[in-house]
Amino acid sequence: MTVTSELPAALERIGRVELATLPTPLHQAHRLSEELGVSIWFKRDDLTGIGLGGNKVRTLEYLLADAISQGCDCLVTGAGAQSNWTMLAALTAARCGLEPFVVCYGDPVPDRGNLLLHRGIGTSIRFTGDPERSSVDGGMQELATQLRGLGRRPYVVPRGGATPVGALGYVRASLELAVQLAAIPDAPTTLWLAAGSGGTCAGLVAAAVLLRTSYDVVGVTVSRPVAEITAQVAHLATAASELIGMPVEDPTVDIRGGWIGPEYGAASPEGDRAAALVARTECVFLDPVFGAKAMAALIDACRSEQLAGPVIFLVSGGAPTLFSAAPRSAGASR
Q1: Residue 4 bridge partners (DSSP)
Q2: What is the DSSP string of 287-330?
Q3: Residues 45 and 66 both lie in one domain
Q4: Average pLDDT for 236-254
Q5: Residue 238's domain spans which residues?
Q6: I want to staple 59 with a disulfide (CB 3.0 to 4.6 A). Which of 157, 166, 184, 268 is the partner?
C-alpha cells in the first residue's frame, strides 16, 4: 500500500476538533480466525475514548469543527431513541460548548441505554410521535426554525452524521490504518463494516481509491435497501473527496444485503449467534443493530468459502445499546 503525501496535507487544510484517543488498536482475532479458517483482524473503533466509544467520534471531529467555524451555538440532530450516533453527537457537542438538541422518531420510551445517558447530560429531546424514521428529518428542520426564531444559531446534522464533511473522519482513519497495516505480514483483501447511514463506508471507499489500498471495502447494510445505500455511499465518497480537492469519480461500492433481520433497530437471530461467537472467542461485545449483523454476514462468507483473507472487521462500538430494553442484548444465543 502506498500512502501519498498529498492526502494528509489535503486533510490538514480542513478544520478538525481533536476528540478521539488515537490510534485505535488493530489486532488479530486469533481464536475467531481459527474457528472460521480465515485470518480476521479487528480495527477497534469501539475504543475511541469518548463516552463508551464508537466510530462516530471520528465523524464528529470534522462536523463540530465545521459548526464552530460557522459560529453555531447548538447542535440539532436525530434518530431513534437508542441511537449511538445521537448520544455521541450530544456528548461531544456539549464538550465543545454547543447545546445539544435531539429529535427521535416515535413516542417517548423508558429511559434505558442511550436515552438514559442523554438524560444524564441534559440533552434536550423531543419525539415526533410518528413511527417512521424519516419523520426525524422534518422534526429537525422544525426545531431548527424554532431555535433561529429565539436567536439561536443551530448546526443541523442529518441522521448518522452522513455528510461529506463527516465522511472525512474515515478518510483520515484510513491513513491511520495504513500505518498499522504496514507492520503486519500479509496485506488484507477486504475491510468489512456495518453500513447504516453510509458516512463511515463512504470515507473508507474514497480513501481506498486515493490510497490504492490492497483491500476492497465491503459494507453490510443494516437499515436501507442495497440500491439506496449504494447510491448514498457513492455520492458521499465523491463529495468528500471533492472537499479536499482530490475528486474520486464513480467509486466502486460493494454493499451486501440480506442481513437486516426483522427490521432496523431489532436484533436478528443470525446477529445474536455471531455476537455470541465473537464474545466467546475474542472477549469483544458487538452491538445487535450494527456490528452483530455485519459480523453475521462476514461469518457466512467465510464458511461458504467465498472469502480469502486476511480480512479487517471494523468494530464500530454501540455498547449502550446492549443495555436497552429492545433490541435484545447482543450475544444472546437463544
Answers
A1: none
A2: PTTTHHHHHHHHHHHHHTT---S-EEEEE-B-GGGGGSSSSPPT
A3: no
A4: 97
A5: 6-55+163-323
A6: 166
Q: Is residue 199 part of a domain?
A: yes
Instruction: Quote the pTM value.
Output: 0.94
Helix 84-95 with 56-69: angle, nearest 10 deg: 40
The C-alpha atoms of residue 122 and residue 104 are separated, in whole angstroms, by 15
What span, in angstroms and rounded, lies between the C-alpha atoms of 173 and 203?
8
pLDDT digits (tens, 9 = 90+) for 258-295: 999 999 888 999 999 999 999 999 999 999 999 999 99
Q: Are residues 167 and 310 in the same domain?
A: yes
Q: What is the CATH number of the domain that holds 33?
A: 3.40.50.1100
Structural domains in the chain (count): 2
Q: Is residue 311 part of a domain?
A: yes
What distance lies between CA 255 and its chain's CA centroid? 15
Q: Based on the domain organization, do 142 and 169 belong to the same domain? A: no
Grid cell for residue 144: 431548527
Helix (H, G, I), strand (E, B) or coil at 124: strand
Query: Pairing between strand 154-156 and 124-127?
Result: unpaired
Same-domain check for residues 216 and 287: yes
Distance of CA 122 to the CA centre of its chain: 24
Tracing cell 483482524 back to the chain, one arrives at: 41
Beta strands in the chain (DSSP E): 26-28, 40-44, 74-79, 99-104, 124-127, 154-156, 190-195, 216-221, 254-256, 311-315
Q: Is residue 231 part of a domain?
A: yes
H/E segment holding residue 131:
none
DSSP 54: B
Residue 334 forms part of a structural domain: no
